[in-house]
Amino acid sequence: MPNGIVIFTEHRDGAFNKASFEAVAAGQQLGASLGQPVTAVALSADAGIARGLAGYKLDRVVSVENAKLSEYTPDGYADALERAVRALDPAFVLLPHTYLVRDFAPKLAARFGKDVISDCVRASAENGSVTFSRRIFLGKLDADVVAGGEPPVFATFQSGAYRGDQAERGEGAQVESMPVEVGEVRMKPEAPFQEVKAAVDLSKAEVIVAIGRGIKGQDNIQLAQQLADALGAELAASRPICDAGWLPIDRQIGSSGQTVAPKLYIALGISGAIQHLVGMKNAGTIVAVNKDPEAPIFDIADYGIVGDLFEVVPTLVEEIKKLKG
Amino acid sequence: MKIIVLMKQVANKDAILRINRDATWIEESDLSFEVNESDGYALEESLRLKEKHGGEVVVCTMGPQRAKSVIKDALARGADRAIHVVKEDLLNLTPYAGAQILAEAIRAEQPDLVMTGLQSDDNGFAQTGVILAELLGLPHATIVIEVDASGEQLRVKRELESGWYQWYAMPKPALLTIQSGISQIRYATLKGIMAAKKKEIREVAPAAAGDAAATGQRITKIYFPQKTKQTQFLGDGNAKAGAAQLAEKLRSEARIF
Ligand SMILES: Cc1cc2nc3c(=O)[nH]c(=O)nc-3n(C[C@H](O)[C@H](O)[C@H](O)COP(=O)(O)OP(=O)(O)OC[C@H]3O[C@@H](n4cnc5c(N)ncnc54)[C@H](O)[C@@H]3O)c2cc1C
Ligand SMILES: Nc1ncnc2c1ncn2[C@@H]1O[C@H](COP(=O)(O)O)[C@@H](O)[C@H]1O
Question: Is the CB of B38 under 6 A from ligand 1?
Fold first, then answer.
């Protein structure tokens, strides 16, 4: 009978990423409440990398190996992990919801005639059955979801849903090598690269005024610029603003843009999707101006104004100028 | 090159969402709808590829009759024809079951390229495209931000996290999930709107979706997320008063100036 939890861990250039330890923490907690053993797997060409997991409280650490796994491809990873999952026969397969996992996990699940309970923020076990909670409508609502059908259940966890530093250390398990077959890999990756260095390094900015789709038009950006000028701030934006070409891409904040932690971050007309939040949630003070009282951005804001930014910003500029004298 | 673009109709992003009586989905009766954001970019990129390399762009949408507005808009922008998989209710349709239906709806077309958005703005599964690729036996790439179809092989630029990118080459036919911002979206012209009236919209019934729909993941309850932070709300609905209070707080509490 399928039993236990398999955690997929992700690495690049010889190091596991933070999201992998968040997945380890998720797996350990679920394993503890279900009383099921927990196995972490790493995919690579040799056993080297998996040793990095040996210091954690895990029942097994399995190094899934094939020469074709030296670099990531969805074909290679889906093939290898499919074989590992069939061999380990777990009840749950947990993965971090990273760009890499998004690329192959649905393919893996489809091999089992299933899909993924994706981007979960919580999982809770009661009487042996697990309820997953995931954000829907770009973070505006939560949905409790239960799995159906035969195990394994595939689930991914959103960045920050669990704390990587709470991944429990322990005796550590011996690393077991599991050589697997990998079929034809149809896609050929070239080396990853960064675009030419960003012209503005927003990570150095003390104060950031960020605009979102609520700004409505390119012509209105000067309004936000006035606020930025009054505060000596840099201007930044959510993705749709840069997608539309209203601001250059090096001013985009978020998972595919810059990560910042200024003293003050003012979000004007930004809803607060997770891909934006991961880029700015560590700011000292967060201010949100949004006409929707349920906008998820308010969940991380210190100060909030529910209202029209076109009314708020001019007054705010005036008042700041007054106070500054 | 024959390109199929999958486009979904979702609730308008600016809509104020209300939860339905059973707390299993949102109240849809008084909502306005629009095309899923990344799907609009998938269409734009498909049209550009067709302009460069010739061929045909076919839109495929699964949803109720109201989803026709997405199709008509796509035809007005330049898509050649459309397949509408008429399904009144997408509720509790798992991504696997949805991909199965879509696979059967487009399989006979034998496209050179299938384009989808990278995720839906309502369900946010982020997987329909990848499952579809598996069901059709196609290689795929996700979060694609540039497409080069000029060579024998397809070359695509994928977005990785925090400002990293990577090119992948793969044989055609293939499936790509498109990231927003890949290219600037055109507007429909009056000429396009007129021409769209003559274009074919083929309605098909969903193929039986196996039993995945009955046995897959299922929503038991939806609700507004619990707030974890104590936000100080300023102005009590009065924007100007809020702004004045905020300026004062930024000076006295946050000590920004
Ligand atoms: C793989 C992936 C990567 C991504 N990377 C990023 C990223 O790096 N950065 C990023 O930002 N996003 C990213 N996104 C997109 C993200 O999911 C959201 O779609 C995006 O952040 C939404 O931007 P927004 O808040 O400006 O727009 P919306 O979500 O449309 O929000 C606009 C807000 O403005 C408010 N508003 C409207 N008018 C007014 C007004 N007059 N006054 C006040 N408020 C008003 C509305 O109530 C709404 O809350 C990514 C998505 C994916 C899937
Ligand atoms: N009902 C649908 N009709 C057409 N395309 C869809 C539908 N559902 C999902 N898709 C496509 O699959 C992508 C990913 O959706 P999802 O897996 O729900 O995040 C979307 O961006 C669409 O391109």
Answer: no
β-bridge pairing A92-96 and A153-157: parallel
pLDDT in tens, A60-88: 999 999 999 999 999 999 999 999 999 99
Residue B6 is classified by DSSP as E
Index of the ligand 2 atom closest to the CA of residue B87: 1
A113 CB neighbours in chain B (<8 A) are 96, 210, 212
| HEC sequence for chain A | CCCCEEEEECEECCEECHHHHHHHHHHHHHHHHHCCCEEEEEEECCCCHHHHHCCECCCEEEEEECHHHHCCCHHHHHHHHHHHHHHHCCCEEEEECCHHHHHHHHHHHHHCCCCEEEEEEEEEEECCEEEEEEEEHHHCEEEEEECCCCCCEEEEECCCCCCHHHCCECCCCCEEEEECCCCCCCCEECCCEECCCCCCCHHHCCEEEEECHHHCCHHHHHHHHHHHHHHCCEEEECHHHHHCCCCCHHHEECCCCECCCCCEEEEECCCCCHHHHCCCCCCCEEEEEECCCCCHHHHHCCEEEECCHHHHHHHHHHHHHHHHC
A313, A223 contact by CB (below 8 A): yes
Average of per-residue pLDDT values in chain B? 95
For residue B213, is pLDDT > 60?
A: no
How many residue pairs from chains A and B have C-beta atoms closer than 8 A?
282
Nearby residues of A295 by Cβ (< 8 Å), 6 or more positions away: A140, A271, A272, A288
Q: Would the CB of B128 count as within 6 Å of ligand 2? A: yes
What is the C-alpha separation between B6 and A316, in angstroms, rounded?
44
pTM over 0.95: yes
Task: For residue B200, give how far its alpha carbon lies from the nearest alpha carbon of chain A (Å).
Answer: 31
Nearest to A298 by CA among A260, A320, A275, A267: A267
The shortest C-alpha distance from B189 to chain A (Å) reads 19
Question: What Å distances lie between residue B121 and A137, A281, B12, B92, B232, CA to CA?
Answer: 6, 22, 9, 16, 29
Report residue B31 as tokens.
């909502």
What average pLDDT does the segment A251-257 reach? 94
Confidence of residue A325 (pLDDT cuts 50, 70, 90): confident
Asked if A324's CB is within 8 angstroms of B26's CB, the reply is no
Q: Would you tell me which residues 107-146 of chain A have a C-beta closer than 8 angstroms to some C-beta of chain B? A: 107, 109-111, 113-119, 131, 134-146
- What is the nearest CA distance from A93 to chain B, expressed in angstroms? 14
Which chain B residues contact residue A244 at CB under 8 A? 184
Q: Which two tokens stand for residue A227?
A: 């606020």
